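A reminder from the course coordinator: this example appears on the midterm review sheet, so study it carefully.

Given structure:
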């Protein structure tokens, strides 16, 4: 039957729509960086990692004990190398040698931090259950690091947090790694340790009210509202505001956001909404908001983990501009990669002048640059 003048345009539109749906999405339409470019940057970094490993399999042990070794191993595992890869296998073996009788993975100091990141590496490598026992004992050790009911009252600002050694004051950096390690080990959101940690993380947020009754939160400036702080207990002078509050920081706000999400806090919860609102107002890949270049690669890795947990391919800033955050992150890292494949920070704070540490954080960030299922 011949097409009528009215029917022909309708069928043409339908055919066009069908063909467009059948065609694979163009590279420009897909979120994230070009896969080939991403892989090239990763492979260049892998080459550096292979060249910088110590004879015993470790990476920069004098800087952070086994911590950097764990971060490098986790980064290599997340970016395409299996546990049998020679570099990864030697790094894991070096980590195993640091497993103490109490289950912790440390060497004299930074016990919570190094055990937490070691748990992330062992879990990524645990393809056949070969690290089940190490993960179980490490998880038990981490539980003992937390300021729980046996150490302080629930109203104490330290409650639920984790510090470097289980005795020193807790901070958000140690606590978010602690929470991530528990999640990696399969500890559920309803576990008492997770719930206690959530109390501490909430008390690190510049959001006065039900979840934060700390004095600093009641003196929050509008530009800090919703963001999170590193240390609510005895902060450095540079973190204090003239009003008596504390300045929010980029890396800590992303760390707090991912902690909220990992702990099962709903997206419509004021804590999540407050953190997202602050991050929208401070969206950048050029600096660690509040700290400039200090801790920039640490910032990149919390940025990536938090936005991946949020589950959005684009992130709108306060002006409503939507950002392909994975591509933005990739471009920021690509332009900072050095000729030998490494990254390093010129700012001496937080040990990121160490190329092994900065490169581990960069690779971890890059591991989140490809959208899930792509």
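Designed residues:
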């Amino acid at each position: 039957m011949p097409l009528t003048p009215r029917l022909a345009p309708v069928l043409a539109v339908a055919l066009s729509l069908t063909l467009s749906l059948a065609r694979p999405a163009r590279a420009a339409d897909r979120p994230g960086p070009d896969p080939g470019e991403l892989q090239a940057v990763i492979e260049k970094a892998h080459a550096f990692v292979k060249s910088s490993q110590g004879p015993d399999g470790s990476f920069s042990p004098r800087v952070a004990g086994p911590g950097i070794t764990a971060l490098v191993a986790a980064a290599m595992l997340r970016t395409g190398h299996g546990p049998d890869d020679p570099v990864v296998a030697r790094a894991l073996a070096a980590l195993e040698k640091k497993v103490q009788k109490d289950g912790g993975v440390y060497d004299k100091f930074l016990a919570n931090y190094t055990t937490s990141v070691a748990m992330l590496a062992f879990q990524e490598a645990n393809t056949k259950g070969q690290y089940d026992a190490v993960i179980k004992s490490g998880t038990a050790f981490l539980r003992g690091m937390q300021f729980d009911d046996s150490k302080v009252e629930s109203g104490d600002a330290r409650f639920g947090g984790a510090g470097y050694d289980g005795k020193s004051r807790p901070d958000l950096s140690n606590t978010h790694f602690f929470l991530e390690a528990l999640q990696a080990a399969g500890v559920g959101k309803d576990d008492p340790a997770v719930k206690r940690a959530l109390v501490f993380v909430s008390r690190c947020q510049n959001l006065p009210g039900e979840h934060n009754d700390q004095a600093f939160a009641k003196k929050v400036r509008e530009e800090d509202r919703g963001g999170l702080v590193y240390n609510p207990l005895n902060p450095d002078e540079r973190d204090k505001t003239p009003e008596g509050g504390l300045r929010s920081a980029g890396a800590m706000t992303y760390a707090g956001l991912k902690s909220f999400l990992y702990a099962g806090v709903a997206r419509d919860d004021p804590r999540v909404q407050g953190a997202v609102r602050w991050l929208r107002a401070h969206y950048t890949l050029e600096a660690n908001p509040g700290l400039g270049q200090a801790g920039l690669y640490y910032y990149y890795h919390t940025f990536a983990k938090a936005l991946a947990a949020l589950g959005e391919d684009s992130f709108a800033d306060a002006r409503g501009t939507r950002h392909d955050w994975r591509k933005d992150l990739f471009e920021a890292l690509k332009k900072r990669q050095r000729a030998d494949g490494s990254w390093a920070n010129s700012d001496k704070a937080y040990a990121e002048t160490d190329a092994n540490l900065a490169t581990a954080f960069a690779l971890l960030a890059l591991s989140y640059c490809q959208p899930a299922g792509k």
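The beta strands are 315-316, 322-323. The first helix runs from residue 7 to 22.
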